[in-house]
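Thread: Pyridoxal 5'-phosphate synthase subunit PdxT, structure

OP (GT): Posting the sequence first so everyone is looking at the same thing. Length is 220 residues per the record. Can we get the structure tokens written out before standup tomorrow? I want them in the notebook alongside the other entries.
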Amino acid sequence: MILTDSPINTDNSAASNSATDKSATGNSAHTVAVLAVQGAFLEHRLMLEKLGARVIELRQARDLQQSFDRLVLPGGESTVQAKLLREQNMLEPLRERIAGGMPVLGTCAGLILLAKHVEGNEVNGFGTLDVTVKRNAYGRQLGSFHCESEFGSHNSSLDLGKVPMTFIRAPYIAEVGANAEVLATVDGHIVAARQGNQIGTSFHPELDDDTRIHQLFLDL
């Protein structure tokens, strides 16, 4: 594990840039909605636009009238985001789309919003991803750190190899239900899971140069 206050660049960036060049044309067919009521949504937008996707921001209910085929739930404060989603009448409409199979990527707080269960705190988010999440799981000592770990699935051909992972006051997944599968672990803790078209990560892939996780999301 590499402890640091900021992300590091890795040798994966060259391969990532090559994949970006190859995929940009196909990605331009996608419109991704990024939840922008609170949190670190800009970095996701920049990453997705780098990959060639069209990006819109969701701030209020009328934004849902726009056409989009994918959703990103960024890091931030999960309780605040859940509250604002309810106040802006966006929670149930988005829940219906996620349950209906729309691809979604939830990072850090976004993972908590997706989780079916949250230990010690009822965030009352979407509850569509069959996992139990522990919030602020790493405590102050490891409040922020960076490492690399394998990312992939034993149940499919999906295997990205080692990817950079940046954690900021991160949760981890305490338990994965029967409907979900583990995608990554760090020091014995589950830090990424998938259920159908839903991917949830404890870390922030948008804060590193490696684009493979966002490309995986666009390929769903």
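GT: Both are above now. Quick notes for whoever picks this up: The helical segments are 12-27, 42-50, 78-87, 91-99, 109-114, 212-219. The chain has one domain: 31-219.
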